Amino acid sequence: MSADARYRRIAADIHARIQAGEWAPGEALPSRKLMAGQYTVHEQTVRLAYVLLRQAGILDGEQRKGVYVAHPPAMRTLTDPDAPWPYGAELTDTTPCRATAELAGRLAVPEGTALRREVVECMDPGGRSAMVVTSWWRAPRRPHASFVVEVGVRPVTEEEARSLRLLVDAMAYRLVRTRLGEDGRPVETADVVLPMDRWLIRLSGMR
């Protein structure tokens, strides 16, 4: 097993132990030396696992002063996936692309059609990333009259994991939101990705 795979495996196991209640929020984890003995690895491997868990928001604290289980973020409830985001947001990517088979189906355009694309990271009131919205549309951008949403779950991508401070194999809600024009044809589609540890989904009265 490679060194990279080893510390990621250890990080995933520590995360599972935290979820099982072995350490409570605010409780310090054992030293790197003790954990290295438990996993029969070098202390540096445990340090990398702790760094990964801190980046994902699962652990907090400083390496030289000890780390502890982070308190869980506030849960939010999403009721309208088309409502304007009320807090800060950052546009992180505007690279255009060609319609894949999936996007072509969602937008009712031929596969390979040139599409505009934007990735927006939405922040919570504390400045922490709350969701990532990736949108695609065929220029020019047109207003919409209604929308439809499909809700599912999938692992986050590496890019989403970095933005949302999650482990790469973490599961997240994926809302496929497609906006429709007055004629009922798709004018834009988006993947709205929300961490499962920060969101509840409650949809009603969809138009």
Shape: elongated
Overall structural domain count: 2
Span from first to last CA? 51 Å
How much strand? 25-35%
CATH architecture of the largest domain: 3-Layer(aba) Sandwich
The parts where pLDDT drops under 50 for at least 5 residues are none
Keywords: DNA-binding, Transcription, Transcription regulation
GO molecular function: DNA binding; DNA-binding transcription factor activity
Protein name: HTH gntR-type domain-containing protein
Describe the structure concisely.
By secondary structure, the chain is an alpha+beta fold. It contains 5 helices and 11 strands, in the order αααβββββαβββαβββ.
Structure overview:
The chain is of the alpha+beta class and 207 residues long. The chain has two domains: 3-69, Winged helix-like DNA-binding domain superfamily/Winged helix DNA-binding domain (Arc Repressor Mutant, subunit A, Orthogonal Bundle); 76-201, Chorismate lyase-like (Chorismate lyase, 3-Layer(aba) Sandwich), CATH 3.40.1410.10. It is 25% helix and 34% strand. It is built from five helices and eleven strands; from the N terminus they run αααβββββαβββαβββ. The chain has helices at 3-19, 32-39, 43-55, 101-107, 158-164; strands spanning 59-62, 66-69, 76-78, 89-93, 97-98, 114-123, 129-137, 146-155, 171-180, 186-195, 199-201. The strands form three sheets. Strands 4, 5, 6, 7, 8, 9 and 10 form a seven-stranded antiparallel beta sheet that branches. Helix 1 (3-19) packs across helix 3 and helix 2 (32-39) packs across helix 3 (43-55). The longest helix is centred in the N-terminal third of the chain and has 17 residues, at 3-19. It is elongated and about 65 Å long. The model has no long low-confidence stretch (mean pLDDT 90). GO terms for molecular function: DNA binding; DNA-binding transcription factor activity. InterPro entries: Bact_HTH_transcr_reg, Chorismate_lyase_/UTRA_dom_sf, Tscrpt_reg_HTH_GntR, WH-like_DNA-bd_sf, WH_DNA-bd_sf. Keywords: DNA-binding, Transcription, Transcription regulation. Residues 4-72 form the HTH gntR-type domain. This is HTH gntR-type domain-containing protein.
